[in-house]
Amino acid sequence: MFDFLIPAAHAQTAAGGGGAGATLMSFLPFVAVFAIMYFLMIRPQQQRQKQLKAELKALRRGDRIVTAGGVVGIVQRSREDSSEVEVEIAPNVRVTVLRETISTVLTSTAKPVNDDKSK
């Protein structure tokens, strides 16, 4: 009944032998998409993470930060060897947060804030 379709199918498979060049060309778009995604998405994210890690390591008293929960505060006490940071979130309200939960350093002071309030 459909015998007229069989020779056409054999003719298509016989002519499709492109070899290694066709296989390479079929993977080229996938490689190009991965390269574009790497340079537009993955690499900038890695650079931001490296920068945040350096900022967290250099936290000092007086720096404004944002925690992962969205709480904005000012660093009151920070030790480099500790994973905890004391943050003032309101006047006379201090909380201790883990360094890893800080998502953004809004302002960074060049030197620690002076405790001398007599000026």
From TrEMBL:
<dbReference type="Pfam" id="PF02699">
    <property type="entry name" value="YajC"/>
</dbReference>
<protein>
    <recommendedName>
        <fullName>Sec translocon accessory complex subunit YajC</fullName>
    </recommendedName>
</protein>
<dbReference type="InterPro" id="IPR003849">
    <property type="entry name" value="Preprotein_translocase_YajC"/>
</dbReference>
<comment type="subunit">
    <text>Part of the SecDF-YidC-YajC translocase complex. The SecDF-YidC-YajC translocase forms a supercomplex with SecYEG, called the holo-translocon (HTL).</text>
</comment>
<keyword id="KW-0472">Membrane</keyword>
<keyword id="KW-0653">Protein transport</keyword>
<feature type="transmembrane region" description="Helical">
    <location>
        <begin position="20"/>
        <end position="41"/>
    </location>
</feature>
<keyword id="KW-0812">Transmembrane</keyword>
<keyword id="KW-1133">Transmembrane helix</keyword>
<comment type="function">
    <text>The SecYEG-SecDF-YajC-YidC holo-translocon (HTL) protein secretase/insertase is a supercomplex required for protein secretion, insertion of proteins into membranes, and assembly of membrane protein complexes. While the SecYEG complex is essential for assembly of a number of proteins and complexes, the SecDF-YajC-YidC subcomplex facilitates these functions.</text>
</comment>
<keyword id="KW-0813">Transport</keyword>
<keyword id="KW-0811">Translocation</keyword>
<comment type="similarity">
    <text>Belongs to the YajC family.</text>
</comment>
<keyword id="KW-1003">Cell membrane</keyword>
